[in-house]
Amino acid sequence: MQIHHIAIICSDYAVSKKFYTEVLGLSIIREVYREERQSYKLDLAIGDHYVIELFSFPNPPKRLSRPESCGLRHLAFSVESVEDKRNELIKKGLDCEEIRTDEFTDKKFFFTSDPDDLPLEFYEV
Protein backbone atom coordinates (compact mmCIF):
# COMPACT_ATOMS: atom_id res chain seq x y z
CA MET A 1 0.00 0.00 0.00
CA GLN A 2 1.13 3.58 -0.73
CA ILE A 3 -0.29 7.04 -0.21
CA HIS A 4 -2.07 8.10 -3.38
CA HIS A 5 -2.55 11.82 -2.71
CA ILE A 6 -3.23 14.44 -0.05
CA ALA A 7 -6.27 16.74 -0.27
CA ILE A 8 -6.01 20.32 0.99
CA ILE A 9 -8.85 22.84 1.20
CA CYS A 10 -7.66 26.42 0.89
CA SER A 11 -9.32 29.71 1.81
CA ASP A 12 -8.01 31.72 -1.18
CA TYR A 13 -7.60 29.57 -4.28
CA ALA A 14 -5.47 32.03 -6.29
CA VAL A 15 -3.06 32.58 -3.39
CA SER A 16 -2.70 28.86 -2.64
CA LYS A 17 -2.38 27.92 -6.32
CA LYS A 18 0.47 30.43 -6.68
CA PHE A 19 2.11 29.18 -3.45
CA TYR A 20 2.06 25.48 -4.36
CA THR A 21 3.08 26.01 -8.01
CA GLU A 22 5.39 29.04 -7.97
CA VAL A 23 6.85 28.95 -4.45
CA LEU A 24 7.05 25.19 -3.86
CA GLY A 25 7.39 24.35 -7.56
CA LEU A 26 4.74 21.62 -7.87
CA SER A 27 3.49 21.09 -11.42
CA ILE A 28 -0.14 21.22 -12.50
CA ILE A 29 -1.61 17.98 -13.82
CA ARG A 30 -5.15 19.33 -14.30
CA GLU A 31 -7.40 22.08 -13.06
CA VAL A 32 -11.18 21.91 -13.10
CA TYR A 33 -13.99 24.12 -11.86
CA ARG A 34 -16.94 22.21 -10.44
CA GLU A 35 -19.93 24.51 -10.87
CA GLU A 36 -22.27 22.44 -8.69
CA ARG A 37 -19.89 22.85 -5.72
CA GLN A 38 -18.57 26.32 -6.58
CA SER A 39 -15.19 24.68 -6.19
CA TYR A 40 -11.88 24.44 -7.98
CA LYS A 41 -9.91 21.21 -7.90
CA LEU A 42 -6.23 21.45 -8.80
CA ASP A 43 -4.19 18.23 -9.15
CA LEU A 44 -0.51 18.81 -8.43
CA ALA A 45 2.62 16.70 -8.84
CA ILE A 46 6.22 16.60 -7.73
CA GLY A 47 7.98 15.55 -10.92
CA ASP A 48 5.65 12.97 -12.40
CA HIS A 49 4.33 11.79 -9.01
CA TYR A 50 0.73 12.90 -8.31
CA VAL A 51 0.71 14.19 -4.76
CA ILE A 52 -1.79 16.96 -3.85
CA GLU A 53 -5.40 17.83 -4.63
CA LEU A 54 -5.97 21.52 -3.85
CA PHE A 55 -9.63 22.43 -3.34
CA SER A 56 -11.50 25.69 -2.92
CA PHE A 57 -14.92 25.81 -1.29
CA PRO A 58 -17.04 28.80 -0.30
CA ASN A 59 -16.33 29.83 3.33
CA PRO A 60 -14.34 26.86 4.70
CA PRO A 61 -13.79 26.96 8.48
CA LYS A 62 -10.38 28.04 9.78
CA ARG A 63 -7.81 25.58 11.15
CA LEU A 64 -8.29 25.33 14.92
CA SER A 65 -4.70 25.47 16.12
CA ARG A 66 -1.21 24.91 14.91
CA PRO A 67 -0.28 22.07 14.78
CA GLU A 68 -2.04 20.07 17.48
CA SER A 69 -5.62 20.09 16.21
CA CYS A 70 -7.28 16.79 15.29
CA GLY A 71 -6.64 15.62 11.77
CA LEU A 72 -3.63 16.26 9.59
CA ARG A 73 -0.79 17.62 11.73
CA HIS A 74 1.56 18.62 8.93
CA LEU A 75 2.64 17.77 5.40
CA ALA A 76 6.29 16.71 4.96
CA PHE A 77 8.41 16.91 1.83
CA SER A 78 11.75 15.12 1.43
CA VAL A 79 14.64 17.21 0.11
CA GLU A 80 18.31 16.60 -0.57
CA SER A 81 19.44 19.65 1.42
CA VAL A 82 17.35 21.40 4.05
CA GLU A 83 19.78 24.33 4.05
CA ASP A 84 19.34 24.90 0.31
CA LYS A 85 15.53 24.52 0.48
CA ARG A 86 15.25 26.81 3.50
CA ASN A 87 17.39 29.50 1.82
CA GLU A 88 15.31 29.20 -1.37
CA LEU A 89 12.03 29.59 0.51
CA ILE A 90 13.31 32.53 2.58
CA LYS A 91 14.35 34.28 -0.66
CA LYS A 92 10.76 33.75 -1.87
CA GLY A 93 9.45 35.52 1.25
CA LEU A 94 8.51 32.61 3.51
CA ASP A 95 9.04 32.68 7.25
CA CYS A 96 10.94 29.46 7.99
CA GLU A 97 11.77 28.03 11.39
CA GLU A 98 15.36 27.27 12.31
CA ILE A 99 16.77 23.92 11.17
CA ARG A 100 16.49 21.17 13.77
CA THR A 101 17.85 17.63 13.98
CA ASP A 102 15.58 14.62 14.47
CA GLU A 103 16.73 13.00 17.72
CA PHE A 104 15.98 9.50 16.44
CA THR A 105 17.33 9.64 12.87
CA ASP A 106 19.88 12.47 13.11
CA LYS A 107 18.30 13.94 9.93
CA LYS A 108 17.82 17.69 9.60
CA PHE A 109 14.42 19.32 9.09
CA PHE A 110 12.55 22.63 9.37
CA PHE A 111 9.00 23.92 9.22
CA THR A 112 7.21 26.69 7.39
CA SER A 113 3.51 27.14 6.54
CA ASP A 114 1.26 27.41 3.52
CA PRO A 115 -1.03 30.45 3.06
CA ASP A 116 -3.67 28.87 5.35
CA ASP A 117 -1.12 28.13 8.09
CA LEU A 118 -0.93 24.40 7.33
CA PRO A 119 2.47 23.40 8.72
CA LEU A 120 4.89 22.18 6.04
CA GLU A 121 7.98 20.22 6.98
CA PHE A 122 11.06 19.79 4.82
CA TYR A 123 13.02 16.71 5.83
CA GLU A 124 16.50 15.83 4.58
CA VAL A 125 16.92 12.39 3.00
Automatic annotation (TrEMBL):
Keyword Metal-binding among record annotations: yes
Keyword Metal-binding in record: yes
SUPFAM superfamilies attached to this UniProt entry: Glyoxalase/Bleomycin resistance protein/Dihydroxybiphenyl dioxygenase
MF annotations from Gene Ontology: metal ion binding
Domain (VOC): residue spans on this chain: 2-125
Keywords: Metal-binding
CDD domains reported in the protein's UniProt record: VOC_Bs_YwkD_like
Pfam family, one: Glyoxalase
Domain of life according to the entry: Bacteria
Name this polypeptide is given: Glyoxylase I family protein
Gene: gloA
